[in-house]
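ENTRY TYPE: paired fold submission
RECORD: A
CONTENT: sequence, then structure tokens
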Amino acid sequence: MALKEKKKVDPVYRRKPSGKMRTKLVGLFLVVILAFVALAIRITVINAKSGDTYKKKVLTQSQQQYSSRTIPFKRGDILDANGTVLATSEKVYKLILDCKVVNSREEYLEPTVAALVQHFAVEESDVRKRLSDATTAASQYQILLNDVTIEQKKNFENYLAPDAETTSLSDEEKLKRGRVKGIWFEENYRRIYPLNSLACDVIGFTYDGTEAEWGIEGYYSSVLNGTNGRQYGYVTGNDTAEQTIIPAQDGNTVVSTIDANIQKMVEGKINDLWMALSGGPHGSGGAANIGVVVQNPKNGQILSMASSEPYDLNNPRDLTPFYSDMDISLMNDDIMLENLQKLWQNYCISSAFEPGSTFKPITVAGALEAGVIAEDSTYYCDGLQKYGPNDEIHCSIYPAGHGQLDLAGSLMVSCNDAMMQISKKMGASQFLKYQKTYGFGSKTGIDLPGEASGTLFTEDGLGAVELATSSFGQGFTCTMLQEINAFSSVINGGYLYQPRIVQEIRSSTGAMVQSNEPVLMRQTASTEVSDKVRDYLASVTSTQGSGKYAKVNGYSMGGKTGTAQKLSSGPDKYLVSFIGFAPLDDPQVVVYVVVDEPNLADQADSKYPQYLCKQIMTELLPYLNIFPDEEEVTPPEKVQAFDTMMAGLIARSGSTQPAGQPAGDQGMDQGTAGDTAGKTGDAAGQGTQEGAVAGTGQAATMNPQDPEASYNQDDPEGADNANLPEPPQDKEKITGGNQLDSDGVSNGDLKFIQ
């Protein structure tokens, strides 16, 4: 018989607890229960008797940490027309030291100082001084650093509380880090400019992240700024401690009319010309200044505005790119501030100058609109006009003359004599009226700070000589913005728009706050007059015109050259310019280029601004989806040679060859270099150097000494004739959309405003 297997029993289940053990377990359980009950009763009693007291202590500690802190707003962004960020604010932190906490226990001092020196750019001596000085030792709010980045903050926080899974610390190190006390961070914002110097004159910068005076930052500062929030505590009438947080309201976003792509291209072309002209006979720079404004003539919006030698918006006080270390070291505070302000000024709106012949289209348009000349009017140029026995004003090709010219020919060859005859028919009152109508003598009202108004003669001061020189852009001053805005009005149908640099304002959430629609200030000319003058200006960029160097092959366009002598700067100082537009029949864009005192032996040469305009237009027109509307033709040989020379200079801009005397330049057309005129005699201060291209063939065939020349030798229209009646005094007050600003010419009792 098989043996029966005995079942195994787990000894844990087999043993039964004794009565003594059960008594101990029950007793232990009761003790734990009683302890929890006692703790609950104690907490209840404390809360009932001293709850508010402890709440106040916690709140007080919180207030000490935040110092009833201000919650900063984020200043709004500045965007370009396509949404590219031009200026923004990034979150940073202030590094705060609570000296009272650090000094509360001796063992906190060394670990805290060591941690600060290790992780932040602070001087150990400065930290120890704040902790030991009687005036700061008990302070709970000492700012050690501004602009601490998020990465720096996170690294420091990880140092104090490292990840246990990835970081193994000794007990000694843990104890050391645990004794780092009294350091905390306060939110703040730092203004940054992602594109550095791009559009610096337009954007401007902030002094401290919220305050600004220059550019869009300055003009729209209150719009860009928001409202700070607040976190604070207080005690109610029932002795109840409360803490309240009022959130900050961020600033609005400003959308500019500037196109960053156009701006970058324009600044690059300016730099090309600057480098090509550098190293000439007048120093190392390419010119005193080179300015460019690009405008939409249909609504006044500015697409680009730039000048030479831009500065870094992220470091606007850095003068090292513009002055040597020795020069900077010799500057006192006043001189340094003066140099900085010159650097920060927007040349295109703040610098007033005599525009020269780019004003001639305004003279012609005003005279046509006034009815003192007609479309078929002609003028005989004999090279000069006389004003008394000692005063005579020359045309560009004096002692020769242009001969018989119609209005188109007068602009094509930039004839001063014709303009003087036209202005004489207008008279001082009528001429001054149209200067004001086109916006000269008063600010345009662009939404940028620092705009100059320019200067005009008063009617009493606008004598025969002054009227004559003003007709071709000498003797009065204007800004680049005034000139391009007036010119746009001439060629856009006769509508003067207020120029704008900002098109929209949006809230921090993206909602539309304000849309800056085009503002039509007044109509300056009829559509018929505008169409005529626009056609005349096409001849300027023809192969025979003074502006042929600006012509973009395949595109219909027009424009006007300018060469103004700067008598106040010296007899050989000139400002040369070109203003052009395209397409001819429906202008979509206007480009105005000024080269102030080019670094050349002969500064009176408008080929250089023409070249810059052409380089800009060649890339700008396709970018704006403006397609060629003409058959391409072979440019004149002189234009091809000049373009080749300039391309070589730009390619070799790092060479030592002076830009003022390029190889092979002797064979170039001297016409635009001769696009000047001079005034002799006693009417000092009203000289000019503006006129037409000589040596084009057109001038030769129209020379009055040429027996083939055709002109009216008896009594040419507009000649100096004492029997011609003076125009009536203008007493009409223009109203409505044509109303002039009351402060159009703020010259007081002076005949001419200096």
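RECORD: B
CONTENT: sequence, then structure tokens
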Amino acid sequence: MESLAGDLRQMQRTPLHDEHVAALRRRGSVRHYAKGHMIAEPGMLMDRFIYVVDGEVEVVDPVTGERALPHTLGPAQFVGEIGFLHGGSYSIPMRMARDTEVIEVPRLDMLELMSQMPEMSDIIITVLAARRRRMIEDQRGSLTLIGTDHSADLRRVAAFAHRNKIAFETIELDDPRALRALTACGETELKPALIFGTRQLIRDPTPLKVARLLGHDLALQTGEIMDVLIIGGGPAGVAAAVYAGAEGLRALVIEDVSIGGQAGTSSRIENYMGFPTGISGADLVWRGEVQAMKFGTRFAMPRRVTSLIKRDDGLFCVSLDNHDEVCARAVIIATGVQYRRLPIPRLEELEGNGIYYAATDIEARFCRNTEAAIIGGGNSAGQAAMFLARTARRVHLLVRAESLASSMSDYLRSRLEAHPNISLHFNHEVAAVHGDSSMSHITVRRRVDRSTRDLEARALFVMVGAAPNTQWLNDCVKVDDKGFVLTGAAVGVDFPYATSLPGIFAVGDVRAGSVKRVASAVGEGSVVMSKVWEYVRDSEEREAARKRS
């Protein structure tokens, strides 16, 4: 299966060309650092591109202070990883292994250079993305999660980091390293914890606190007006972000959970063109995020939009969950859908402790050598069953219908029927969930005769009943009786993605009548940008005319 980036260990090194280095010299400055100088530490912003002219840079073990890796960065190589594109923070400490000469280019100047020199951009982004992959695979980053299995808060942080391709290390409570790490932070009690770097204990950990530490937080200049706000970071929103940046629009994507949306919870997508061996939803959309950042689009997460208004001057402004306000000339609604919370007693109480709405590596670890159940009959549920069957002793797929013929792709249905560790239960539903602090088993009910029986499933995945994320719209645009945004002919306009209010567009699963597939969402996010561009330019002309008068 395809991954998020190339394998750094197998990549052939491609140095920057002479003309690339000459461009760096023109836009940057030459600096000299003595041996032992710390060029990067966890939490330090990646605010400049650092190219090594002569000397050597090494990764430092934050505990021992010694060299952490056998290889170093030398002449014609550069420092950093993919977080450089959005001005994120360094995750690992690095220092000069000997006296070193570098060229430093301010980040914004470097992004402009990369947009002007695509061959240089390709070389740099390929390496930066591969380094992020290596960091994730080696669990080498600035985040350490201790005792994840014993803390719902840490599980939420782990899920956020995993889905957003943030490197982190997990240590079990019974591992001797756990107490040593806590002691270094001044803690004497062995308990679940989140540590940033080696000595900063994060109290009451949340995804937002992690985002702030790593530079994912929203950073706008006072009074800055965006050309377009893209609300939602799923396939449709990220596709729109790529095309907005490519067209030179100042674009901001606001996502309340993680980039990838509902598609990001899919462990394997096999019917998306161009990936014959399949790719996870999170990896697919992450690649799009990197493309969009290359073109200058910004991302803010986890931030929830709570309301939308149109001002008298024609600007659209959204309020965020921290009471910040962001304004733009146009808005794209790409908030997608979320699985409904089913009316099952104690379901909400056990969310994160046995009840899940995504099936990724994080959730799969809680199913190891036990039984799991999935509610749903669509492709997402089927892919989740195949994925979880790798680690779970048995996976039960609970389907309300009499078959999967009308709801699931044929290739996937055939695999489920042939898999020895997957049981299909048609005409079944969940009647109850059981357990104290975590789920111990479930009761299922046969819809035909209402008979019940228990399944020893310690994890239940809800993948049914999609509801649109449109509660925040405040009646700004028309929606149907289920909350999906009405567009095109349904509201009397020619363009299929235009809503009832000019300047606001809707794409992807949140749009009434859309085809609920990743490929169609990407297509809608791409196509919508031509009309958005027209609207923004017309808006600027109207504003200029008002000022002249």
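NOTES ON RECORD B: DSSP finds 13 helices and 25 strands in the chain. The two ends are 60 Å apart (CA to CA).
STATUS: closed
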